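yo, Outer membrane protein beta-barrel domain-containing protein is done. seq:
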Amino acid sequence: MKKYILLPFLFFISFSLFSQTSIFEGKVITKDKSESVPFAQVILRNQTDSSLVAFSSADADGNFEITTIFGTYLLETRSVGYLSDNKVITIDKKKFNLDVFLEEDTETLKEVEVIDSSPITQKDDTLSFNAADFSAVGDEKLEDIVKKIPHLEVNNNGDIFYKGKQIEDIEIEGESLFKQSPQTINRSLPADVVDKIQVVEGKSWDENPKLNIKIKEDKKNIVFGEFTVFGGANNENEAAYRLQTNAFYINPKLKMMAIADANTIGKHVFDLRSYLSFTSNSFVSSQSQNINNLPIQQSETEIPPQNQIIFGGLSAVYSISKKVKIKSYNFYNQRKEIFFSKTTRSFTESSINGIYENTQNQERQNGFLSSETNLLFSPSISQKWNTKIAFRSLTSSSTDQNEVNFQTVNNSVNQTINFLNPEWNFKTSWSKIIKEKNQISFSANYQYIKRNRELILQNTEDIFSNLLSNLVVDFPNFPLNNLTTQTNQIQQNYELKGNFRRTLKEKIYAGVEVKSENQNQNQDFNSPSNFEIEDIDKLNTTNNYTIYRNSGNLFFEVEKPKLQFKTWLTLAHYDYNFEGKLNQKKLQEFQFEPKIDISFPLATSQRISLGYQRKNEYPNAQNLNQVFQFEDFRTIRNGADSLYKITTDEIRLNYNYTNLFNRIMIYSSFSYRKMGNAVGQNQFVFPEGNLQTDINVSNRALTGIIYATKSFDIGKLPLSAKTQIIWNRMESQNFFNGLKNDFINNFTKYQLDLNSHSKGIFNISLSSYFQKNNLVSSLNPSTISLNQYQFLISPFFQINSKINFSFSYEQFFYQNTSQNISFNFLHTKVNYRFIKRMNLKLEGYNILNTDAINSINLTPIYTQNFARQILGRTILIGLNYNF
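structure:
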């Protein structure tokens, strides 16, 4: 029933946001009416707290136009050399006309320097927003202000988007202090030190934007930051704590940031996206759904199991001279978890009888160390040299107690896994501009990775050994008790690239790029000494492979205001050689890989973009040996990825409408992807001799999104609204027990977010979404459906100048044909500032004491329920000191 209520509610709210609008027109002229005032700034503010509602600039003749909604506003008009004019106006007509008169400021004209304090200013490709015009009561971090900037969207994962493009970096005074993790800067920099927030769109139309933060002058040349210490207990009467500090130092030559956090409440300074960015292998291509690159809110409560987290980070940029600069990024993150989980699978295929249940007690500890140093040398304006040396190391260890019940058979096992992954990376690049029209660049990149994985199995019951003996290896006894295996892997990658770019005419370029890439891996498998049988090779993952890719690329680019066109025509030669214990694959071939992007304006503030790309991906660093592995220590899985290349053709269509000063944005996107030879095979061995084979073949994927934002007022409360509709369709095939199975997965999501930004005593955030998954299978006559609903409300109350209070209540709801699952979370915060820089804080997490998070997943083979134990109620009290 909730889905039927929520859907029209979202459409009604979305429609109403754009109703009762008015076009406010007028002209800015001098007080004596002798002449117009060109390029004056016309600002509508909220009458109660002076927060920005809408903004426009007059043209050369003094005419201006603002689109807003009915209401009473404070109208502020100003221009350099004139006294500002402030008045209260009521807009109650669909077309509202009013001229504004400015008086010349003779004193200002005598000043040597005039400071422009406009809320929004633009220069070239940079938009500057005055932080004071967008801040609100209760703002603590940079993120709180960023959420209120027009067209800057922050989802619940911390990802930042501007006009549909993801912000990949946040600079401070022009320098990147944590380049792979803009969320870390966004959630650490104190809000009260920010002077301006600048959005740099980039010189190229398809370049991702970045943010640059200007710091207040009185905060430069001093150390500023905060220190927080918390102590308390959780629902198990166990001690809970959090120690946190961050410090910044900014001056023209040195910019430095230090962050440290140790806690037992699951707070992560370093997010998953940042971890993936730091650990990614630039040579390994990976397919990603377009939906991941769009400003999609993915609300998910971050309530951890019992864990301990330690994090420390230090980054600095030091300018030795105008020509030489050193950058350094260093951090360490350690996480320890202890949790209990239960997995239940109901199989849709009639040949598999019974319910599969798996319970798991696990203790896991992960550590990650990263250190990177860059030396930048610019001997002249036209020449740059950059050298990078980086070291990263990932360590992981886990211990499991695992029990499985399936088809009247019980099995249990103790498991220990140890993993070590040190990595070195060296990269150097050089670029030079020749006679302004020609640019040449070279780069070399080398990467060395070593991975060691150890698996220890103990106390495995005989039924598991007999199962493997009868169905996999044809001999009577195959002991798996006290089994220990070790896999060692060494991977070396290099890349050489040369690029020549010539300016044919203004904003028109052509060039050529040559690239050579190599991936080389050696992997050895050490089997137990008590295994003296030839059939142990079926467990052997030993393999070596090399992939050579040599390519030449011709490109042509046009970056005119009314047309942006880019085409890359790539001819690549692949030399692929895989040598495994049981199989071998060799391949040499040429592939044509074009890419075309076109972008042009339809009208003022509107733009449409079209794109096409073909790419090829080959297996790399995967299990290509088709060897047997252990899944949940009850089922044996024989898994393999395709030895064939994966060819993907993708077409994209984007539409963007942006009215910056009226704070309206509409973004829509549609993409179609067709994949060939995307095959993955799994063989599941069950008790009683049931052998099931599942070969997945992905055929087509379609994704569509409509996303809109608008600012408006309800009474005297300024609000910003975001609404989005997402649709995704994936068509695939699998072969199940020899039968062809065509299945389609349809995903639809509707979401609405409302946020207030009042400078008064109250602010509120509301978020709600409904999403639906439908899985249609040719082997199952009925459609498998899963609905998910989420509601979140977060009000903030400023009781007086010293005390504020906030809470957040979140509800999740899962529904399929057989069951409903719901759970609720409540978090609270109280802050008391008893002296200027000292705060007493009281925080409560999971006040309702929800002890597990349940989720439901759909696959063509089974419906899976997953319940994971989480940390219960935790109460903390502490002190926060700002320096």
